[in-house]
Amino acid sequence: MSPPVALLLALLALQPSLMVAARDEVDTEVLFMPENCTQKSKKGDLLNAHYDGFLAKDGSKFYCSRSVKEGHPQWFVLGVGQVIKGLDLGLTNMCPGEKRKVTVPPSLAFGEKGKGPVPPNATVVFEVELYAVSRGPRSMEAFQEIDQDMDKALTRDEVRRYLKLQDEKTGSGSQDETFYNKVVADVFRKNDVNGDGSLSVKEYNVYGHDEL
Ligand SMILES: *[C@@H]1O[C@H](CO)[C@@H](O)[C@H](O)[C@H]1NC(C)=O
Ligand SMILES: *[C@@H]1O[C@H](CO)[C@@H](O)[C@H](O)[C@H]1NC(C)=O
Fold first, then answer.
1. Distance from residue 82's CA to the centre of ligand 1 (Å)
2. N or C: which end of the chain has fewer CB within 10 A?
3. Is the pLDDT of residue 183 over 80?
4. pLDDT range class, residue 186, cuts 50, 70, 90
5. DSSP labels for 116-138?
6. Which residues, judged by CB distance below 6 Å to any ligand atom, belong to the binding site of ligand 1?
């Protein structure tokens, strides 16, 4: 049991009225911690992980990321509802290379109805191995990288330049101009809410993390 949980339980013992709230807590247990932690995960980060899901009541496995999508680890943005709430909460402050066991009550997992192989009102346990943590595509780090003239607004040219740069970096090769024009038009159509031809911090950073 990790110290914060022990502390929490000690506090709860003193305040029985809080026992009800404890049912809606996620319990995390570190199974492996790498020697060096390069970057701890936080809301809005892009994570790459493998995870196995088990039912708490009998330990049966209902999900294994190694057996879907050709066994590639899954990518998801943390803290924005791309995974169940319990994982959004249970995978924060986690290091690349770390392994965790996360026990999630039904209210933060698949609820009163359940889903697919998960029955109604089921507590689930995930064993997660985290491979990579990177500042997400909507992070302030990314915004500042795109915003070349640092005026806190992204123009079409800045976004186009950034997209090309990313393609060069990942080695996927540059596309033709028509491609970038299409992507940029799409980005602005979806994000330039006030239609002024540039993206403000607020229009870009839709998850509202990492305030400048
Ligand atoms: C951890 O970091 C130290 C200091 O930078 C380095 O000497 C060591 O090799 C690293 N360990 C691992 C397992 O990467
Ligand atoms: C699930 O839990 C809720 C709330 O405790 C309860 O009302 C409901 O009957 C339960 N459903 C099943 C299938 O057990």
1. 33
2. C
3. yes
4. confident
5. TTBPTT--EEEEEEEEEEE--TT
6. 35-36
